[in-house]
Amino acid sequence: MAKSSETLKTVTVAGLLCIVCSVLVAGIVVALRPQQAKNAEIDMKKNILQSAGLLEKGADVEEAFKSIHVAIVDMNTGKVVQDINPDEYDMTAANKDPELSVKIPAGKDVGGLSTRPKYAKVYLEKDDSGDTKTVILNMWSKGLWSTMYGFIALSTDLTIKGFGYYAQGETPGLGGEVDNPKWKEQWIGKKIYDNSNDVAFKVAKGQAQGEYQVDGLSGATITGNGVTSSMNYWFGEHGYQKVLETVAQGGL
Hints:
The protein has 252 residues and is α+β, with helices and mostly antiparallel strands. It has one domain. It has 6 helices and 9 strands, in the order H-H-E-H-E-E-E-E-E-E-H-E-E-H-H. The protein has helices spanning 2-51, 61-64, 91-94, 181-185, 221-234, 241-248; strands spanning 68-74, 101-103, 115-117, 119-126, 132-142, 147-155, 160-167, 202-203, 213-214. Strand 4 (119-126) and strand 5 form a beta hairpin. The longest helix is centred in the N-terminal third of the chain and has 50 residues, at 2-51.
């Protein structure tokens, strides 16, 4: 009997300890959630600014982001949507919501993306007079192993000012080289559209030739093709074309 009593006490103490630890851990998680959300928000702002070369080393992200105006735009019309709060809208989350996304027609789905959001979250750098200097757009691409999420920054003449993926799961040293700063620097100054207004930009199969190409990624043909295909989609008529027309007309 004494042995059974001791065993019961041990089990009881262990159980109470587990309950106390669980409550403490749950409390810490709940308490840290707002800070985690804030950190994620700051990290996203940092990626947006870096994609456009607008964040100097050591600069305060929140302060630098004050130069950015955010608008929600209907991708079908290129018109600004007033009844969606930009602070609460997430394009990647909207892409998974049937009510906020559209199925890409098979003949237009050159990026293999299946769906896209109805509304784009557009980031605009403006000068002192309120004119747009830089347009920063969210885009994603299908790689070999992952969907790669990033931002691309354009001047108003649609020359690329910067580019970068903020999330990707490609093979380190191969497809993962999409995150190599030297490779991303090649994008700066490149053009997307040719003189016929067709998407001409692509990742070359070797060394880049001309103003519409960046070097290929050695050993990562599928990843490179995914980047090229996504550029063809996002800057085609079913992608950002209407949005960019609105920018050109001074509507954003």
